[in-house]
Amino acid sequence: MARPRNTESDAAILADASDTLREGGYDALVVDDLARRVGVAKTTVYRRWPTKNHLVAGAIASWRGETPVPGGGSLEDDLVVLVSDLAEFVDPAPMRRMIAELVAAAVREPELRPHVDALWRERRDALGRLLGAGSGVADQLLGAVFYRAIVSHEPLDGEFAAALVRSTLAGARPQ
Amino acid sequence: MARPRNTESDAAILADASDTLREGGYDALVVDDLARRVGVAKTTVYRRWPTKNHLVAGAIASWRGETPVPGGGSLEDDLVVLVSDLAEFVDPAPMRRMIAELVAAAVREPELRPHVDALWRERRDALGRLLGAGSGVADQLLGAVFYRAIVSHEPLDGEFAAALVRSTLAGARPQ
Amino acid sequence: MARPRNTESDAAILADASDTLREGGYDALVVDDLARRVGVAKTTVYRRWPTKNHLVAGAIASWRGETPVPGGGSLEDDLVVLVSDLAEFVDPAPMRRMIAELVAAAVREPELRPHVDALWRERRDALGRLLGAGSGVADQLLGAVFYRAIVSHEPLDGEFAAALVRSTLAGARPQ
Amino acid sequence: MARPRNTESDAAILADASDTLREGGYDALVVDDLARRVGVAKTTVYRRWPTKNHLVAGAIASWRGETPVPGGGSLEDDLVVLVSDLAEFVDPAPMRRMIAELVAAAVREPELRPHVDALWRERRDALGRLLGAGSGVADQLLGAVFYRAIVSHEPLDGEFAAALVRSTLAGARPQ
DNA sequence: CACTAACCGAGACGGTACGTCCAGTCTTATA
DNA sequence: TATAAGACTGGACGTACCGTCTCGGTTAGTG
User: Fold this and answer.
1) Can you tell me the mean pLDDT for A109-136?
2) Which subunits count as partners of chain B given 3+ CB pairs below 8 Å?
3) The most confident of A89-103, C37-51, D123-137, by mean pLDDT
4) How far is CA D153 from CA B113, B147, C106, D144, in A?
5) The pTM is what?
6) B101 close contact with A: CB closer than 8 A
7) Fewer CB within a 10 Å sphere, N or C end of chain B?
């Protein structure tokens, strides 16, 4: 009954926020500037997302990308496909940065958690389907990838993914 | 010849920072307020730690605790001791919060990395000694722990540690 | 031919505006809030009064009260009646506040002037009839009253009115 | 012992505020813009004046100008000198506007009153010395001037001043 | 009795300014 | 040289209101 929200504004704001985040990271996203760029009043932004963090969460939702559906290979091959894809998704420096930033933001404001988790939920579920959802092994793989991405800052490539899968499947042996 | 630094100030600042971080988290630590509480000039803080993040890292350093030296048991037993200890160290909510915050800060400002890493370096090294430093398995364990701590927000207890070690040693098997 | 305006809305809006102004002053009157209180759309307000200031002027109009018609007495007596009545009208704190606010608004937006002047036009005309419209003495009396009301913030009572009239009629003598 | 305030900033801020007020009136004074123009951080402004209104009051304090000291003439001549000077001071359109605005602001925030009153205190005192401080006639003259300035919006010139003084001294006679 | 123009509630929107918060740097006097 | 005190720059945040606009729906009086 009332004037409906302009959905184009939603899209334009999210697109700009997304681009800005990729290019300059969290601190480069300034609500005032974004509004000016998009040609929208600041209030229009805040009406939709009560906080910069909420906006960020909304913006990155578009980053999820396609989760591959590894049809036929062996368990190891299928896992390598999924983990490689995850590694590739997470690898770019701006993405690492955003993930670290968002993980921190989600700790500060719990309502952000589901939005942040959504980024890798599909990939996590795919791993869970292969490995058994309750086994925890999927999270071991995710954990190893995130550890490299935001803690140890080591490269994330196909080689790493393959080695990780092999090691995880085979079990660790010292030396 | 010159006036020496007051070492009591160092301790008092760190103590207050540590308490404040535990109670209110990263954003609750405001340098101005801290200085007033401690009865110290802001300059005195910044002369010692060039950045709020450095101060936070310093304050957190006191949280490290003792890394156990698992002498005699089997490989699995020794790992469980170390991983349980790590889990216990990382588990408390303020610690999770700070780790997320510091990990993000370290991504933003690379010079912070060694200070942040120092928080778990000893435990990581101990795991490396048991598992072979280059094998990457130590990081798999760390990754799994951090993943729970700051991403999936699941509990971190001895049971989890034992299951993680067992699964990691034995190798994953689907279903 | 078209749907007529709801005259009850006019009254309800004015009543609420009047009350709010008396209680909290100019800044307490927020068009958004008023509309919500009255149960009316903001558009309905702005269709009737193009500006908050116009609404304020309208609300205030209900405060005018009755101008006395001093029939019989001497010139001095008649003037005291009129000036006392004006003083009483202007004296209450909310009225002083609104007059100051409206006078300022009328300086900013000249189209408001007639509406604001209307508040005291009748009383001014009555004084003019007694004193000669072009003599300027009526405005001297009004000026003295307003000066107390909004500049010097002194009390406005019958005693003051009587002294003012006497002094004005007799002419000032130093000491 | 602490770094002292930069008194040049005070002066520069007041000067800019004063100019801006004269040129564009109350609403043209935007704290953000002023700070940029002066080359000062907004916080530096707010450290000195807690509110825009306080800044405005400070700025106009410089407008007081010189109160003439009417030495020798007759009472009427001396009064005409003073009232003409007051009229001239108050006459310019920006000044009328500011006075109306400030009078309203002083009604809203009583702590502003003394600063606003200071604008004409000297002239009021000078009138009081000629006419007797307690007689109230000084305020009658001031009231008449302010009434023209901000209520009736009539011109304020020497002719008016002379007529006002004459009428006030002689006493009003109808017709 | 249908049509049409104006009214109405609801609330989105642009625009503008305000005052606040904090990090990190700088300046002064003192120890 | 260190320190207390606190001024200063710089930048962003979120809030508050005003007045305009756009919907869907309602309500007369006219043709």
Assistant:
1) 88
2) A
3) C37-51
4) 70, 74, 10, 12
5) 0.84
6) yes
7) N
